[in-house]
């Protein structure tokens, strides 16, 4: 009976499918990149194709199409909304893998947990680097079309990698709530203690 009284006092402030969160997180930079590319290509061809070395780029770099106005403002806003969920996704992955690692023998678990922490902090560094290249002004235009093509390939591969989050967590939900049932919280803390 006490469990029912606790759950009846629970208030859910926010509930979203993790899959939907990942889709939004993926679509923000992808759609803004496409809009920036099309509008810069149509309205600012000279600015995005020519480098500071006076070399004409066949494919404008991502830096060039997101570095001209007003495209830079759209890109910055979309990246700002993209960063928060990326931090949440990285934290969810870390917790998810810690729970999986709790099932390994102790000898393997300690080293693997350290490696997991390294991966987590590398992911955080990637998010920080994305903030840096987005918000710190870059006055250089890098020559040669190969750089631009590689930049697009790397960005596309990175977005494709993050699509796999939807495959790893197809039915999970992200919840912001108050007064969750203690059974749920105790179950989570038991899993967390096993992995630390």
From TrEMBL:
Where does the secretion signal sit in this chain? none
The taxonomy runs: Eukaryota, Metazoa, Ecdysozoa, Arthropoda, Hexapoda
The species is Timema bartmani
- Bilayer-crossing residues are 21-43
- What name has this protein been given in UniProt? CWH43-like N-terminal domain-containing protein
An example of a Gene Ontology cellular component annotation for this protein is:
Golgi membrane
Q: Which InterPro entries match?
A: CWH43_N, PGAP2
Source organism superkingdom:
Eukaryota
Keywords from the named record = Membrane, Transmembrane, Transmembrane helix
